[in-house]
Amino acid sequence: MTYSVQCYRDDDSGDISSLSNYSNGFRAYCHARTQVLQHGMTCKIINSESGQVDGLLDPSTERRLTPMESGS
Number of structural domains, the chain? Predict the structure, then answer.
């Protein structure tokens, strides 16, 4: 199964700023989460085979883990 990650900034016209494809849903999620946390983007994870949106991440739903939570 392949996943497409589309990331875009909220402040412009909705143009896709980043588009990546992954064969693994977990990797797709990790990439999307990194874009959200580091760049403040909104990302959609799309199942390439069905065309369904598998996940939607944005700065309001994602937050950085505290050092205690991440175990560092």
Answer: 1
